[in-house]
């Protein structure tokens, strides 16, 4: 048997030892860095919330109240009314008009005579009642909805000297967005539209100064288009 090492690949073994030594040194240099934690798995992205279909409704617009300045003629009349009615404040009066306007429009459409009798003067109630009777006899129905009241403006005021007690009158211009539609007995439209329409009305409110009465203190005495 030939035990000589003449054919043994010493060069390959030597290169292998050198490569192993370099690998150990490299591992010592590039090992785990002090103060650096291994990277954690990426957190999953937050899931979006549920999507609500549809269009967001805009916030309701505030009603604009227009009160004449105290030095104007109408402002002086309002001051005289406040002199006889301590609780009268023009801005609060307009807030009451806004409530009354919605109630009267709805009551007229529904034929609610009790509400109208409480909010109207006797003469105005007679006119409204006659219109409701005519509508009922024709078999018609009224669809009315106040969507918004854009502005309320006091445009005139007066104090009438009556035999018993002075009577105050205030004219208010009311600009509103409404749906107003009259249907016949078969449900067909005969007047108005189901589209939102801007209306401008002039309502006259009255009350006897210094006199307490049941129901609303200020009552609607007349209404017409402005």
Helices, strands, pairings?
Elements: H1 10-29, E1 64-66, H2 73-84, H3 90-110, H4 113-119, H5 122-137, E2 141-160, E3 167-183, E4 189-208, E5 219-225
Parallel strand pairs: 1-2
Antiparallel strand pairs: 2-3, 3-4, 4-5
Helix pairs in contact: 3-4
Largest sheet: 5 strands, mixed
- Spans where pLDDT lies below 50 across 5 or more residues: 1-59
How many E-type strands? 5
| SS element count, helices | 5
Order of helices and strands: HEHHHHEEEE
User: Mean of residue pLDDT?
Assistant: 81
- Span from first to last CA? 131 Å
Beta-strand proportion: 25-35%
Shape field: globular
SS content category:
alpha+beta
Identify the strand order in the major beta sheet: 1-2-3-4-5
> What's the architecture of the domain at 71-225, going by CATH?
Roll
Can you walk me through this structure?
It holds the Pfam family Tim44. InterPro entries: NTF2-like_dom_sf (IPR032710), Tim44-like_dom (IPR007379). Keywords: Membrane, Transmembrane, Transmembrane helix. The protein is of the alpha+beta class and 226 residues long. It is built from 5 helices and 5 strands. It has helices at residues 10-29, 73-84, 90-110, 113-119, 122-137; strands spanning 64-66, 141-160, 167-183, 189-208, 219-225. It has a 5-stranded mixed sheet with strand order 1-2-3-4-5. β3 and β4 (189-208) form a beta hairpin. α3 (90-110) packs antiparallel against α4 (113-119).
Brief synopsis:
The chain has 226 residues and is of the alpha+beta class. The chain contains 5 helices and 5 strands.
């Amino acid at each position: 048997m030939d035990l000589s090492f003449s054919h043994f690949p010493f060069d390959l073994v030597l290169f292998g030892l050198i490569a192993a030594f370099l690998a150990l040194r490299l591992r010592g240099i590039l090992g785990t860095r002090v103060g650096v934690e291994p990277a954690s798995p990426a957190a999953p992205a937050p899931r979006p919330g549920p999507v609500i279909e549809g269009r967001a409704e805009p916030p309701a617009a505030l009603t604009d109240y227009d009160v004449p300045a105290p030095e104007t003629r109408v402002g002086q009349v309002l001051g005289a009314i406040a002199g006889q009615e301590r609780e009268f404040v023009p801005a609060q009066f307009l807030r009451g008009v806004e409530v009354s306007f919605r109630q009267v429009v709805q009551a007229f459409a529904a034929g609610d005579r009790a509400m109208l009798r409480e909010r109207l003067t006797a003469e105005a109630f007679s006119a409204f009642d006659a219109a409701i009777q005519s509508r009922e006899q024709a078999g018609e129905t009224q669809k009315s909805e106040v969507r918004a009241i854009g502005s309320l403006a006091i445009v005139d005021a007066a104090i009438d000297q009556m035999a018993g007690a002075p009577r105050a009158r205030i004219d208010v211009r009311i600009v509103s967005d409404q749906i107003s539609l009259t249907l016949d007995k078969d449900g067909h439209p005969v007047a108005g539209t189901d589209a939102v329409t801007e209306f401008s009305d002039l309502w006259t409110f009255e009350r006897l100064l210094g006199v307490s009465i049941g129901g609303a203190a200020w009552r609607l005495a007349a209404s017409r288009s402005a």
